[in-house]
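Bug #77: duplicate submission created two jobs. Keeping one. Sequence:
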Amino acid sequence: MDNLSVDHLIGIKDLTKNDIELIFKTADSFKQVINRPIKKVPSLRDITIANIFFENSTRTRLSFELAEKRLSSDVVNFSAASSSVKKGETLIDTVNNILSMKVDMVVMRHSSPGAAKFLSERVNACVVNAGDGTHEHPTQALLDAYSIREKLGEVSGKKVVIVGDILHSRVALSNIYCLQKLGAEVMVCGPTTLMPKYIAELGVKVEHNLQRALEWCDVANMLRIQLERQDIKYFPSLREYSMQYGLTKEILDNLSKEIVVMHPGPINRGVEITSDVADSKQSIILQQVENGVAVRMAVIYLLASKIKRQ
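Kept job's structure:
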C-alpha cells in the first residue's frame, strides 16, 4: 500500500502531489462504500478519534463524525462552548486530558492560525486540521479539488476562479495550494479590500470584475462573506457586495460557455449566489458535501494506517 508523506494533516502546503492523488484514489473506493446499503467498513475498529472544535461548525464536524463512524472508529466529540476552556483551561491541558483517555487521533478546529501545528508538535497523537483561523482548511480544499476531478475528469489544465472574501478565507488559501499542485490555473476575484496583501506572491491571477472572471474560468468557487471574522467594514453593505460580486442565474445564462459552480457552504442565499444558482444543474454543491465524507474517510484511514504501524 502507498503511504502519505506526512504523519499529520496540518495544511495542503505540506502535501505532495502524490499525497493528494493517493487521497483521491482512496476516496474513490470509499465513495463506493457510502453508496452501498451497508455504509460501513471495519477498517478502524481499534482507533479512537476525538473531534475538538473550539469554533462553531456544523457541516465540517458532521462530515468528520460521519466519516469516522463509517470507518467503525470510536468517536469522542468535544465542543469548547460547553467545556472547561471557558474556565481558563489551556489548549494543551484540554487536549492532554482527552489524550489521557487513550485517543489516537485529534480532529481540531481552532480560531488561531497555527493551532493545529502547535498541537501536533506537543501531543502524542495524529492531528488533522479542520480549520485554523484564516490559515488553512485542508480537507475542504481536497474535497473541492476531488469534486472538480469528478465533474470535469481532471483538475490539471482547468481554470478555477475563487470569488469573494479571500482575506478571511482559509478555504481560499488551501484551495490555491491544492489546485496549483494538481496543475490548475487559479484566479481570485473580489473587492480590493478583501484581497490579502501577499496574494500576488501566490502565483494567482487577480481580477476585480466578476463578469471577466466568469468568462475566463471553467469553475467558479463562490465563497461566503465571513462577517464573523470582520472587525471593520470592508465594503459599504451586503446589498452592494451582492450587486457587484453575487452570482445570479441571469449572469450564468449569459456567459459564452457553461461553467461549474461550487460553494464551500454555508451559503448566504441572495448574497454570494442566488437560490436558483445554488439549485441549478451547473451547481455541484451537494456533490461537494457527499464527497466531503469520502475524502475525510480517506484522510483518516491513511493517517490511521501510519499509527497502526508505529
